[in-house]
Specification:
Blueprint (H helix, E strand, L loop, with lengths): L3 E2 L5 E2 L2 H32 L5 H24 L10 E5 L20 H8 L4 E10 L3 E7 L2 E6 L2 E4 L20 E6 H13 L7 H4 L3 E7 L10 E12 L7 E4 H10 L11 E10 L5 H9 L4 E4 H44 L1 H9 L4 H41 L15 H25 L3 H6 L1
Parallel strand pairs: 7-11, 8-10
Antiparallel strand pairs: 1-2, 3-12, 3-13, 4-7, 4-12, 5-6, 5-9, 9-10
Helix pairs in contact: 1-10, 2-8, 2-10, 2-11, 8-11, 10-11
């Protein structure tokens, strides 16, 4: 629209062009103003149309948190996450990550199998979990009352604690035996204490608590058995040790067995191998070494196998959850679609009148879809915070409702899901409103007046 050249030779717009541009901008501004006013006025009336999105987003947030917790719970391996060059060797009837129990028929790894594993080429360090075969009784003095209970005793080397305990070098036998109490055992002990009228104690109260281990070198009930009192002290607590008894340094168990091998009726050798953690020198040799250990009739678990089993379990969980979410999503879309069809019917006079005065179909569709997107985003925000609140509520109450899920730790999202929740709900609502918006843009004034 430039039609004049000034004295300097440059082009400048004419007055008519300026008026045209001003009128155009004014037209755009008025359209935006009326469109936004129409959206704001109708949003309050349309809030109930996409109400189901709140529950869909809340379920999605809760499901993702639960899925991550299950993944960590299933993928949790012996004493924390295994390194890529480590494998866990277990008796055939047990597996890595399972609770090791003590009983007359407890499975164990024969000593000759351990020697043969040490001789396999490519095997580096071997850390073993020992099970004391001697009957052991824990003796505690609490509130003027004595508590004595038989309890399994396991032995590990300090190397097992390198990843989880800063004081792992101090886990060695001395004047007092350091004892690690698995949290599972602490729960059992508190149940026994409650049954005897004693108060339940937490970790802080028992940290450094003195005790005695009364060890009998012969079988329980044998007339010639001898008893030895060993002073001990609580070294710490662990949620990662999958054991059902107290944990002491393995050097104490082997040293005690060697010192009392000549006792009358002594159980020999006094300990057994419950599990082994084998370190492979070269990761490339891990599959071959695993096959050689399996050929000895033992069960082998590596990080790769555990990850594969975890992914398989999660695939089953994801599949069933996706079916539930798919059904919920379909029903939500149908409900939103029907709600917007009702809105179009109730506002048919307005839509047809807009078409008469010259409002384009595209503008009606865009306005209606944008209105639905705003409503969906609002409900997505509400659904997200409802899901976060549900996670916090279940985190504190789920262990009481379902004790077997006590190991699950639900974590709240730090905000990474918020944009996804808002965007997904806005998209879902706008897509559900698109077809009703097309119906609205094709309204006939005469049919609307007849209604």
């Amino acid at each position: 629209y430039l039609d004049r050249v000034n004295g300097t030779g440059s082009l400048s717009p004419s007055r008519d062009d300026k008026r045209t541009m001003k009128a155009f901008l004014s037209y755009i501004g008025r359209n935006l103003y009326f469109s936004l006013r129409e959206i704001v006025r109708n949003i309050l009336r349309s809030l109930l149309s996409s109400f189901g999105i709140i529950f869909l987003i809340a379920f999605l947030v809760l499901y993702l948190s639960l899925r991550q917790s299950i993944k960590e719970y299933i993928g949790g391996t012996l004493f924390g996450t295994l390194d890529i060059n480590e494998i866990v060797v277990s008796p055939p009837a047990s597996g890595a990550g399972e609770l090791i129990s003590m009983g007359g028929r407890a499975e164990k790894i024969a000593p000759d199998r351990v020697r043969r594993i040490r001789n396999i080429r490519g095997v580096g360090e071997i850390n073993s979990i020992l099970r004391m075969e001697y009957p052991a009784k824990v003796k505690l003095e609490m509130f003027g009352r004595s508590v004595r209970e038989y309890m399994p005793v396991y032995g590990i080397s300090p190397a097992f604690l390198r990843k989880s305990e800063k004081r792992w070098r101090q886990f060695v036998p001395g004047a007092e035996i350091p004892v690690i109490v698995p949290k599972f055992v602490l729960d059992v002990f508190n149940n026994l204490a409650a049954a005897r009228g004693l108060p339940q104690l937490g970790e802080k109260a028992l940290w450094g608590f003195p005790m005695e281990l009364v060890i009998e070198t012969a079988a329980r009930g044998a007339p010639e058995r001898r008893k030895y009192d060993q002073p001990a002290r609580v070294f710490g607590f662990s949620a990662e040790l999958p054991l059902t008894g107290l944990v002491v340094p393995s050097d104490f168990i082997t040293g005690f067995a060697a010192a009392h091998v000549g006792d009358p009726g002594a159980i020999r050798p006094g300990f057994s191998y419950a599990q082994l953690v084998v370190t492979v020198k070269d990761v490339k040799d891990l599959p071959e070494i695993s096959k050689k250990i399996q050929a000895l009739g033992l069960k082998v678990e590596s990080q790769q196998e555990i990850a594969a089993k975890t992914n398989k379990a999660l695939a089953v969980i994801d599949g069933s959850s996706l079916v539930i979410m798919g059904i919920f999503l379909f029903l939500t879309v149908i409900a939103i679609f029907n709600s917007y069809l009702t809105i179009v019917y109730n506002r048919s006079y307005t839509f047809s009148l807009q078409r008469v005065i010259g409002v384009s179909k595209a503008r009606i569709i865009l306005t209606f879809v944008f209105e639905a997107a705003v409503i969906g985003a609002l409900f997505g925000l509400i659904g997200y915070y409802m899901g976060v609140m549900a996670i916090g509520y279940l985190k504190h109450n789920m262990p009481h409702w379902v004790p077997v899920l006590k190991g699950l730790t639900l974590t709240r999202d730090t905000g990474g899901l918020l944009p996804l929740a808002v965007g997904l709900s806005a998209l879902l609502s706008s897509v559900s409103a698109f077809i009703p918006a097309v119906f609205a843009s094709n309204m006939n004034l005469f049919k609307a007046v007849q209604k």
